[in-house]
Amino acid sequence: MVSGQTDTNSFISDTLPENYYKLHSVERDGISLPEINIREAVIIGRPSTSKKFPYWKYERLVNNLRKVYPYALVVRARLEQINAALESIPDDKQRKKYLRQIEKDVFGEYEDDIRDMTISQGKLLIKLIDRETLNTSYELIRQYRGGFSAAFWQSIARIFGSNLKAEYDPYGEDAIMEIILREIEAGKL
User: Fold this and answer.
1) Which residue among 53, 68, 71, 128 has its CA within the 20 to 30 Å range from the CA of 122?
2) Residue 95 half-sphere exposure, CB side, CA atoms within 13 Å?
3) Residue 133 Cα to chain centre, angstroms
4) Among residues 116, 140, 124, 136, which one has the least CA distance to residue 177?
5) Distance between CA atoms of residues 142 and 64, nearest Å
6) 139-170 in b/e burial notation, b at 16+ Cβ within 10 A?
7) What is the pLDDT of residues 63-114, one digit of tens each?
8) CA 175 to CA 187: how far, in whole Å?
């Protein structure tokens, strides 16, 4: 056998044997073409020092998300507990009493932490609550406390430049947030 040639029963090994791709044959316009399924890759460039990309804004967003994201996870977990408990309570009066007690407990436990947040952190928390619960903060307040209470808190939020009806858009304006959150969840940040 000449060097460089391979036998039909042998193969050239890769330096990383676990990284291989299987070609599929796909027919397009009457022509059979090879095709590979590849995974999505997210590419983030190096930090730039130019004025076009203010890297300090990115760093501030990372720090704010690190501070606020655990609270969004707590909201999701508490909401699951509350919904499970509400299913077992048949009487509306007992449900309202239970919700008032939960509200009192939550305010006692987290009020100081929430008051120490900046307005931008509060805006992030509103969006993260929508991400984790699939409901806006306004919808949650309206569902558990009523429409009047939801309207009251929405007006207070609007005074401070926030919106309880803000929705999380991972493929639009919140795409960078989604990338950062995935990094936080993976333990890389």
Assistant:
1) 53
2) 14
3) 10
4) 124
5) 27
6) bbbbebbeeeebeebbeebeeeebebebebee
7) 999 999 999 999 999 999 988 888 888 888 898 899 889 889 988 999 899 8
8) 19
Q: Which H helix or E strand runs over 106?
A: helix 92-115
Phi, psi of 7 (to 5 degrees): -75, 150
166 by DSSP, 3-state: which?
Answer: coil
As given in the structure block, the two tokens for residue 128 are 């993260």
Q: Residues 163-188: pLDDT tens digits?
A: 999 999 888 888 889 999 999 998 88
Query: Residue 135 is encoded by which pair of tokens?
Result: 């409901």
Would you call 32 helix, strand, or coil by DSSP? strand
Tell me phi and psi for residue 33, to 5 degrees.
-120, 145
Specify the residue for token string 């460039």.
Answer: 45
> What one-character DSSP code corresponds to residue 27?
E
Q: How far is CA 165 from CA 74, 127, 168, in A?
A: 20, 9, 10
pLDDT given for residue 1 in this prediction: 47
Phi-psi region of 39 (alpha: psi -120 to 50; beta: other; left: phi over 0): beta
The model's pTM is 0.70
